[in-house]
Amino acid sequence: MNADQLSATSARAIGLDVDALTVRGGKPLDGRIEMKGAKNLVTKAMVAALLADTPSELRSVPEISDVRVVRGLLEIHGVAVETLGDTMRLDPANVERAHETSINAHAGSSRIPILFCGPLLHRLGEAFIPDLGGCHIGDRPIDYHLEVLRNFGAVVDKLPTGIRMTAPDGLHGAKVRLPYPSVGATEQVLLTATRAKGRTELSNAAVEPEILDLIAILQKMGAEIQVDTDRTIRIEGVDHLVGYSHTALFDRNEAASWACAALATGGDIFVGGARQQEMTTFLNVYRKVGGAFEIEDDGIRFWHPGGDLKPVVVETDVHPGFMTDWQQPLVVALAKAKGISIVHETVYEQRFGFTEALVDMGATIQIHTECLGSHACRFGQRNYQHSAVIAGPVSLRGADIVVPDLRGGFSHLVAALTAEGESRISNVGIIARGYERFIEKLQVLGADFDVDG
Ligand code: EPZ
User: Fold this and answer.
1) CA 212 to centroid of ligand 1, rounded, Å
2) What's the pTM value of the predicted model, to 2 decimals?
3) Which of 123, 192, 239, 315 is the most exposed place for a label (fewest CB within 10 A)?
4) What CATH number does the domain containing 237 carry?
5) In whole angstroms, what separates CA 266 from the centre of its chain?
6) Which NCBIfam families does the record cross-reference, listed alphabetically (predicted)?
7) 140: Cβ below 6 Å to ligand 1?
């Protein structure tokens, strides 16, 4: 990609209005890139600002489209949002109702609107959420969220246009047990319980690092939250919260994706801002596959040390397990490992759709309905195609690919970068939902590609 193309507009560099890339594979990615705050924390931290009486300041905010969606939703609800570099200031002094049509127009394809419910019920006594989007990686229902909100005293009305909620008697603390440690439902409880009247006890909660960072933010705001060793979270409701000042946790999903890109392309990438502690499970697998890494104070260097990559058996799981968002780029590296690898997806029932394009590119991957890991998961008896068997090593060849979802799309990009010949990847705007300035990063790392259109 030449310099003129790159400087076209900043939106283009971010990848927001880019439709397609033509990628010529076979070049190892080599260089240094920087991580910003995690998509799956920053967007929730922005919503938390709604709970305060005073402004909040969030640092290390990435330029991704999910942040833009949440910003738009906050603004139509009266929150004044300003950014200076990667610092965002959010002033909730004038929170107000938004019209259903503007909420629908701003929600885009994000699932974050559901997390506005608790804070808006506290602030305004009502909330509306449109039909939710998000990546198409399974049914992605919101039943846990609605049940949680009902437990707090919300009245939920399903309308043809979306869901309207009211809280005629205010919200009160509740005893909740999640059927599964859902990240979003845990955040729903946190964002609702901190200002509800009385005590909340949440058992079977998710405790991902992004959730612990959200708890740290809420604590800065004045919330009383205790996390027990058995994944029970206890929250004592308070009447008022103040704004926070916080630097967001780095994006470990993005870091893992670039680490896999280094491995699959035979490259060497220093991921600035990545930290060991939140990635230990990933690092163990990376080492087993044959990848090398070096932990520095300011980031982690990932590289392919030469020789054959080794097959592994991996099961995705809730924290501290292997994240479901890490498996897609890893699968590309496993296609190049010598032997049979297995990936058992236990978080989402339908997250192997992306492998079809890899098979078209020459990968040998079979998807099975059986649980092929060491334990039976909740999808095993329900005929979901949720275990992948990957036989390698193969050489991938270029293909025309339409990106299906965020992580699958990134894995397609990595596959194209390793492939012989040219690939045309369209619908790449989806990647900008969660990978900050990925086009610039590809350029910095020496990828050979053109932005089409
Ligand atoms: C979050 O999604 C992340 N998204 C996902 O990241 C991530 O893969 C996921 O957590 C798991 O870590 C954001 O943070 C915005 P869940 P979330 O509720 O909260 C089922 C990415 O690529 N479930 O933990 O929506 C659900 O279907 C993405 O960055 C219900 O059945 O995930 C799934 O099988 C994609 N009913 C499981 O729970 C509900 O009401 C876990 O989902 C809610 C969830």
Assistant:
1) 16
2) 0.95
3) 239
4) 3.65.10.10
5) 26
6) murA, PRK09369.1
7) yes
